[in-house]
Amino acid sequence: MDTKKIPPQPSDETPQPQDKSREGINLAKVVQFFRLAFVPKYTETFLRLDRFTDLDIGKIRELTGVEIKGIILDVDCCIAPNHGEILQENLEHLRKLIAKGIKFVIYSNMKWSERYEALQKDLPVLTNLPPKPDPKGFEIAVSQLGVPKENVVMIGDNYLTDGGAIGAGIKFIHVNPIRSEHEGFVEKIQNTLRSVGIFLSRFHHP
Length: 206
Known about the structure:
- The chain is α/β, with parallel strands linked by helices.
- The protein has a single domain (27-204), classed as Rossmann fold, CATH 3.40.50.1000.
- The protein is 34% helix and 10% strand.
- It has helices at residues 27-38, 57-64, 88-99, 117-120, 135-145, 164-167, 185-204; strands at residues 47-49, 70-73, 103-106, 152-156, 171-175.
- The protein has a five-stranded parallel sheet with strand order 1-5-4-2-3, with helices on one face.
- β2, α3 and β3 (103-106) form a beta-alpha-beta unit.
- The longest helix is centred in the last third of the chain and has 20 residues, at 185-204.
- The termini are far apart.
């Protein structure tokens, strides 16, 4: 009996980008820690928010004169619990801002995962970038947005990583971190370092 090989059928699923985690300690993070401690300009904060949904582009323009056209956005502890799903209210607020013409890119040190699929329909999720706080990663993110750097802000919860935007000449909006219900040893260390960054920022700029 003659048999023919059936060619593989195309899949309807979007292929997952090849990416790797950018978490963990590296030289850029060590340098950033000492900058936060001893060089006040690296903790200059454009705005502090309790949560992402408090972001009001119109009010910021009215109070500061700054026209925000592009946003580099962190994920974990910013719009989602650490390693968790993106909160629905944050996803809805994100889409409202996109509908108003604000451009977004996601820049996270976490490896690409399926939770980003809900975002990919609306905005680019950057992969294979230098890990935050490396300035090169922020420069690439700005180029992806396609708007002038003076009209771009970085929104994140961690001065040790997201705060690297300040050294890259990008305004930094700090959001209070979303805490997870169950935190392991590593998460507790991360939270301690995050809290140190917040303390230093308020110490240098009361």
